[in-house]
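FAQ: What does the model actually see?

It sees only this:
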Amino acid sequence: QVYLVESGGRLEQPGGSLRLSCAASGRTVSSYTMGWFRQAPGKEREFVASISRSGGSTYYADSAKGRFTISRSNAQNMLYLQMNGLKPEDTAVYYCAAALGVRITSTSDEYAYWGQGTQVTVSS
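And it is asked to produce this:
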């Protein structure tokens, strides 16, 4: 069992940057493939990025490529999402999640543990 708590969401202007953090407790985060998802109002939850247990492999949604960077610190039991060049369409609640599988994955059903989410709003 791992418990996840996101932070770092806030109101940001278009073109700005945010760094989301996800603190894990319970079982060490190094046991899990980790991911970020987001859900905008009235829309289904969508995949943003995933990172392997070692941090050596990453995978991004097309909407995140070139703007977002997922990273992790297994020593500190932390997951991060650096978001640059923010757009209004990035407005959503962002969730971190942990998957028991070895492969990085964009499939939400493969993630067993979820945080409560942090709100990101991009608006001028």
